């Protein structure tokens, strides 16, 4: 039984934080582990660089470049990019922490062979979109390949991994003259020949990836990396239709444009390539989009090597150029002979067939169609007409207003650039008249907000933004300022900004708690407020004193608004029972309880005492209130 050597990093705590759980993959530059971030309690991918990449004199240089590129990659935020969280060192170990994407990679999907054309376009769209975001920031991937396109488990959404890493490593590798780092199967010719890498090299790699997705195989194969690299430099990528019969000319043109050996003939960056990809997608019939690519055959050992990131020795200048192969000998000329009668008939039939074929080709077949060329949109009408005429098409035009396209330039064309159309059908161009203008109404300042909106709407200005501010001079809801000058002309799609008055600035309500009602009223009136009164029983505040205000003291209120003072009626009490007592005794008891009294009836004249009280005994009554004593 073979002895299995356990990975010594499994279970290790890296940098006191990342606990390595399992090894995920191993490549030419690094080993990827699944790890647990013990500080943030989340699962991450930990990419550990191979130690030999930073040995000896290259150690300091590699570390600087590695840290720089990791920072650049960490700043790249895109839904199609595997996020880079951090980079660091632990002893001699250089590592990256990244988003952990459970699932598989594009290589496995290609091997399964059930990729439809629609799914392939969806994957390429995300890859080019991610690269476009990177190219906009000056970041070149340098190692696009199926292994670096991860597919999320469950959703199948693609994410591109390893941004910036290849550059950090290749810059160190290139300190030794004559080496190229990358995955040979996807390397651009200029990278192989000169070591030069820019955004167009990424476009080339995506073109090779597209070929592989469409056909299930790579365009160039050889016994080793040198043979594959030689083919990239000296041989055009073959048309995909030669390997998959259902694929037509639009896909041939797409792959040919992206894999042109001359980098100047490729799309200059991924954003342009993405537009080309989407334009091509619109040309593919639905029934073709859902045909699966044929399954890829089991890869040869040479193909496996070509799909790995490696350092390849680059021969001296000129050695990559292929010698012209010897031309085959011309066949000997046939001796002239006397044509027979049957030959004349055959010649006549052939002539008829040729004439009919020519008619069919130009009237019904492919010759009846032409592709709308690029260079029509965004140029003047005269220039666009010249481009269409040279392509054998008849231009027609309509005009419409557009604020973004200068007057006289073509806004759009139908059919779109790159689409096929009948030669005798006119190509319709939409030509800009420039922005449509509206005259700003007069008197906006001083109108109410509703009046100003209506006046602007009447002249075609409907995009109105309103902000509000306090003004001591302008009444509430009137326009203080407008962003457009009355009587001037502005585009109808311009945003008009209005500032509307919120009235006088608020005044702080003073604190009149504890003052008498009269004193509180005088204080509030002096601040410009109207005053209302509300009485309320309160056992803690003596009768007649202010308990609080509405709004509360310290709050802001508009000048001229009403502030209500809440005045205490004192503590609410209970009327004592004085029925049956003499008037004198009853009055004395009520006074002791804090009430005043008034006597009603005639019973006192006859020496009779209190017969009834109002309010009755036991009823609640605030201190100082009056109790009526009935003597009858």
From TrEMBL:
SMART domains: PASTA (SM00740), S_TKc (SM00220). Residues 18-281 form the Protein kinase domain. Residues 318-339 are annotated as: Disordered. It catalyses: L-threonyl-[protein] + ATP = O-phospho-L-threonyl-[protein] + ADP + H(+); L-seryl-[protein] + ATP = O-phospho-L-seryl-[protein] + ADP + H(+). CDD domains: PASTA_pknB (cd06577), STKc_PknB_like (cd14014). It comes from the Bacteria. Residues 325-334 have a biased composition (Pro residues). Its EC number is 2.7.11.1. InterPro entries: Kinase-like_dom_sf (IPR011009), PASTA_dom (IPR005543), Prot_kinase_dom (IPR000719), Ser/Thr_kinase_AS (IPR008271). The keyword Iron-sulfur does not apply. Keywords: ATP-binding, Kinase, Nucleotide-binding, Serine/threonine-protein kinase, Transferase. Gene3D superfamilies: 3.30.10.20, Phosphorylase Kinase, domain 1, Transferase(Phosphotransferase) domain 1. Residues 362-433, 434-502, 503-569, 570-632 form the PASTA domain. GO terms for molecular function: kinase activity. Pfam families: PASTA, Pkinase. This is non-specific serine/threonine protein kinase. It comes from Promicromonospora kroppenstedtii. The lineage of its organism: Bacteria, Bacillati, Actinomycetota, Actinomycetes, Micrococcales. The gene is pknB.
